[in-house]
Structure formats: structure tokens, C-alpha cells
Design brief:
74% helix, mainly alpha
């Protein structure tokens, strides 16, 4: 699978409108910049905090973490993609 396809797949699952390739690229750049800014400010999160945030996120869909990750996997989305998404969001919010 091409990198482009891997980047746009999560957005297509979420039925995001518009140019998915551009949106995926922008999101990855934003997430990386947010993590870098948080790290530069001395912010860190523990593995337990990340795990709790991932579980909280999946509860929005009335699913446990394993079920949610399973659904993502069925759609070709690696668990690391979800983990990175939640991690970047947490770092930026902190």
C-alpha cells in the first residue's frame, strides 16, 4: 500500500469531506509540529495516561479499545496510527 493511501484511509473511514490527500498531509504536519512544541515546552505523558485517553476516545463510539482497534484493523488502519493520533492530541492539549 502506498504512503498516500495509508495517510488517507483514516480520513475516508471517518467520511471526511474534501481532498483527503491534502487533509491527511496537513494533519500529519500539524500533529508533528504540535508534538514538537509540547516536547520543547517540557510536556510529557505516561503510557498509562495515553492508554486511558485511547480508551476514553473509543467510548465515544460505545466500543472498548480492543473492539475499536479491531475495526480499524479491518479497514487497514494500524493501531499505531490511532495511538499517534491520540498522543499528538494529548500532547497539544497539555
Amino acid at each position: 500500500m502506498t504512503l498516500r493511501r495509508r495517510l488517507t484511509r483514516p480520513l475516508s473511514v471517518l467520511r471526511a469531506p474534501g481532498d483527503l490527500e491534502k487533509a491527511a498531509e496537513d494533519a500529519l504536519i500539524d500533529e508533528r509540529l504540535q508534538v514538537q512544541a509540547a516536547e520543547a515546552a517540557g510536556i510529557s505523558i505516561t503510557g498509562d495516561e495515553l492508554q486511558a485517553a485511547m480508551e476514553e476516545y473509543t467510548q465515544r463510539f460505545n466500543l472498548d479499545l480492543n473492539a475499536f482497534v479491531g475495526i480499524l484493523g479491518q479497514r487497514g488502519i494500524a493501531p499505531e496510527t490511532f495511538r499517534s493520533f491520540v498522543y499528538a492530541g494529548m500532547m497539544w492539549r497539555e
